[in-house]
Structure to design on (223 residues):
């Protein structure tokens, strides 16, 4: 079984147009025909499919708890973990610059590629095919969810640590925005004024960049 076929089996979807899957696994460092537009589409489809499943699975939960559960599933760390389980890292087409950066793709790239693959499934087979692929990929994580104790993202953990120390909440500001409108890269600074600490993070959205900056700040506090 070829590696793309193994991925198709894990997703439960065989592509009628294999070119879509190839594009979803191509990083922008490898050429113009890359996964960025598919990532944009897949981000929306993933959020919808996860919300759909949580809404049906937890009929008694409030909107706030459902939102936190969804956030715990679609945060970058969770996406990168699922991408690794699916074997996406071994299938990615990366340019020389990314290959030189290290033996494994960065978590942000894995997360983006997973979203792109979901977008590709949606274009190839429609929403129902994409929903089934999301459930196949995220099923183990969804089964482990505790509605009363959803996994906390980096910003939430940082906020709780500072609150426990009776310190002011961190400030986030956008340092720069690069790239064209459909493929922007955000750089965000996180500042904890009372401690005189700053950290930065980058991502394909302001939210992701803030999460990365918060994660970097947590690492500084742990040291």
């Amino acid at each position: 079984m070829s590696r793309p076929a193994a991925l198709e089996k894990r997703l439960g979807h065989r592509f009628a147009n294999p070119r879509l899957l190839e594009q979803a696994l191509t990083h922008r460092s490898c050429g113009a025909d890359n996964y960025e537009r598919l990532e944009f589409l897949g981000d929306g489809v993933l959020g919808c499919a996860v919300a759909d499943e949580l809404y049906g699975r937890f009929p008694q939960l409030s909107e706030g708890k459902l939102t936190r559960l969804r956030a715990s599933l679609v945060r970058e760390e969770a996406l990168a973990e699922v991408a690794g389980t699916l074997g996406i890292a071994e299938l990615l087409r990366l340019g020389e610059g990314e290959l030189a950066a290290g033996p494994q793709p960065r978590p942000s790239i894995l997360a983006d590629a997973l979203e792109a693959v979901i977008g590709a499934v949606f274009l190839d087979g429609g929403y129902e095919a994409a929903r089934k692929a999301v459930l196949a990929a995220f099923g183990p994580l969804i089964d482990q969810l505790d509605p009363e104790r959803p996994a906390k993202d980096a910003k939430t953990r940082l906020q709780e640590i500072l609150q426990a120390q009776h310190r002011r909440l961190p400030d986030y500001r956008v340092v720069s925005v690069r790239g064209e409108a459909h493929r922007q890269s955000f750089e965000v600074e996180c500042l904890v004024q009372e401690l005189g600490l700053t950290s930065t993070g980058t991502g394909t959205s302001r939210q992701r960049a803030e999460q990365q900056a918060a994660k970097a700040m947590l690492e500084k506090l742990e040291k």
